[in-house]
Amino acid sequence: MAQNEQKQPNDGGKAVNAYAKYTGMAFQMIAIIGIFAFAGYKIDKANQHHTMWVTAALSLGGVFISLFIVIRSVKN
Predict the structure, then answer these.
(1) What pLDDT shows up at residue 20?
(2) Among 6, 14, 43, 70, which residue has the fewest nearby CB atoms (within 10 Å)?
(3) Alpha carbons 66 and 72: distance in angstroms, whole number
(4) Each residue of 8-53: pLDDT tens digit?
(5) Nearest C-alpha neighbor of 36 from the set 68, 73, 72, 63
(6) Among candidates 22, 24, 34, which has minimal Cα distance to 63?
(7) How far apart are the first and last CA of the chain?
(8) For residue 39, what are the contacts with CB-CB under 8 A and spacing of at least 6?
(9) Cβ atoms 41, 52 nearer than 8 A
(10) Torsion region of 5: left, alpha or beta (phi above 0 gives left; psi -120 to 50 gives alpha)
(11) In angstroms, how far is CA 16 from the centroid of its own chain?
(12) Non-local CB neighbours of 32 within 8 Å, separated by 6+ positions
């Protein structure tokens, strides 16, 4: 009975590679947005702004940059 069974190719390695790739991209997005938001926060605090416009602008810029990087990575 064991002789009649056909072996399936092992796709477990590809699944792990894809999981690691997309998990890495998520952490990269978090890091980029976090760095930009922190920089904006520091700029706002140094200039004593009452409204955190620089933080908001840099956070949004970080989102766009991280999305650009993710789209470019997925495309390849």
Answers:
(1) 86
(2) 6
(3) 10
(4) 556 667 777 878 888 999 999 999 999 999 999 999 999 999 999 9
(5) 63
(6) 34
(7) 44
(8) 58
(9) yes
(10) beta
(11) 17
(12) 62, 65, 66, 69
Please give the structure tokens belonging to residue 50: 């009452």
With a CB cutoff of 8 Å and minimum separation 6, the contacts of 44 are 52, 53, 54, 55
Q: Residue 38 carries which side chain, given as an amino acid letter? A: F
The structure tokens listed for 67 are 């999305």
Q: What pTM does this model have?
A: 0.75
Cβ–Cβ under 8 Å, residues 62 and 33: yes
Number of Cβ atoms within 10 Å of the Cβ of 56: 13
In angstroms, rounded to a whole number, what is the distance separating the alpha carbons of residues 47 and 45? 5
Please name the residue that has the structure tokens 């699944």: 15
Contact 32, 64 (CB under 8 A): no
